[in-house]
Amino acid sequence: MTQVTERGTSLPAAPRAGARRRSPAAAACVAGGAVAAGLGLGFLAVLVIVLWISSPYPDSGPGGALHLAAGLWLLAHGTELVRYETLSGVPAPVGLTPLLLVALPVLLMRRAARLGSAEEEDEEVLPAGAVFSAVLCGYLAVGALATVYAAGGPMPADPISAAWHVPMVAVLAALGGVWGARGRPLGPLPPWLPGGVRRAVVRPRYALALRAGAGGALVLLGGGALLVGASLAWHGAEVQTSFLSLTGVWSGRFAVLLLALALVPNATIWGAAYALGPGFALGADATATPLGFAGQPGLPRFPLLAALPPEGPGTPLTWAVAGVPVIAGLAVGWFAVRRAREVSYGETALTAALGAVVCGLIMTGLAAASAGPLGSRRLSDFGPVWWATGAAACAWTLLLAVPVAVAVHAWRNRPARGLAALDALSALDVDEVVDDRWHDSGVRELRWAAMRRAAGTLIPEIGAEPVRVVPVVPVVAAVAASASEAPVARAPRAPRAVTVVSGRGLDLTPILIAAKPVPPAEPLAPPLAPPVVGARVLARRKPPV
């Protein structure tokens, strides 16, 4: 009774049916997304504060520097900023995103998704969709607060641009992190897709096309980086003068250097667009192409812009940049060829064409990401035109990749050397001979049957119907045995027929092999114990039960 009446430790109540259990793993993923956004903001805030402190003429207080850091964080996602303090008084949009700055939020968000998907002992493992949603919610919550906070600074963000740029970057980075944490699976497509689409995508031509297109895009970007580096070295004096004339303090020059480094990926894409032919725009009325630099650009003073080609018609030096897309087309054609020999020429040409399309799509996206406005009038168009760059990349690679892929396919499938003797087998009354195809079906069985007949029964037969070969050379093995050495003379072994096929490059000359003499039979050893005579054997009786 005391155990019932006395108040002790209360028993845990049963959970209600309608209540949801809170998952600590989901809360940790939400916190991880928020921390990833906070780390990006904190890094830029520290950098801006250091430059503000070291500047001899700060225009605003620390609050303005923090507002500028929030605007730069949004610019790293591709958000368009608005600059109100202009000489003309007209607000100027700033939409040119330094692509190296984009790597900061992408890496942090990807790391948060990977940590949320990591499997540890004694912890709850969430599905991939739950991890993706939780990390994305935490990141976007901080992004919304940063957008509101940056609105009070000197360069606020455009709300419409921030509403779709920040989620797009966060979604792509989170997908990459979750996919990498799950081991990069390439499972089947969703069942709601049509069956024909699912069967078509699993074909190996699409993987080869992706590899070929990515290889062509990498060659174009490498050529663009080479052009930018060569142009900077060629115009070294102008670049140095532009860098030193912008500011005279070390903090300002350090800021200019950081901005130039962040814009190096943009310059690489611009160089690739220049080599492809469409070039890039330097304002509303100026375009730089290998054929010439037309218009009157109103360019700001900046080190990277000092390395532009001179105005006027093109020269043989600028025309030589056409070698970059030529090499890219050769790369697409090379990577589009499969190692298997049963692939037809049409399949190879189709794979190369798809690789050219993939290369065009990649360059289209990169050109769109590297361009943007720097003003409202003459600098409203700044950078390569995305559709012209993608079309030129697809055309260059398609024109060169298809014939190169077919030529490489023919070279890899050429007949091997020393197989011309296969044609001579047709005169030996062979049932079926395949012409100069060493690895085709039928020739392998023919060679195997010939080697089996030459080696006897050492090699098993692999075909259901062996190939009949006419020329047969009997080899007789003589068996010699001495009558004095062996008490009983053994009969010689019967001769065995061995098939020898000529024209194979094998030395199958018959050799007479004498058998070893058989040793004489040894006498039986004496028994261990002498036999017993007169022994009586008694029957064993069954014991009584």
Strand-helix topology:
Blueprint: H1 2-5, H2 24-54, H3 62-75, E1 81-83, E2 92-94, H4 99-117, H5 128-150, H6 159-181, H7 195-201, H8 204-234, H9 236-246, H10 250-262, H11 264-276, E3 280-282, E4 287-289, E5 292-294, E6 312-313, H12 316-319, H13 323-335, H14 345-370, E7 382-383, H15 386-412, H16 443-455, E8 472-475, E9 496-499
Antiparallel strand pairs: 1-2, 3-4, 3-7, 4-5, 5-6, 8-9
Helix pairs in contact: 2-3, 2-4, 2-5, 3-5, 4-5, 4-6, 5-6, 8-11, 8-13, 8-14, 11-14, 13-14, 13-15, 14-15
Question: What does this protein look like?
Answer:
The model is unreliable at 1-20, 424-437, 463-489 and 497-505 (pLDDT under 50). The protein has 545 residues and is mainly alpha-helical. A hairpin with an 8-residue loop joins strand 1 (81-83) and strand 2 (92-94). It has a 5-stranded antiparallel beta sheet. It has a two-stranded antiparallel ribbon with strand order 1-2. Helix 4 (99-117) packs across helix 6. The two termini are 67 Å apart. The chain contains 16 helices and 9 strands. It is globular and about 110 Å long. 50% of the residues lie in helices and 5% in strands. The longest helix is centred in the first third of the chain and has 31 residues, at 24-54.
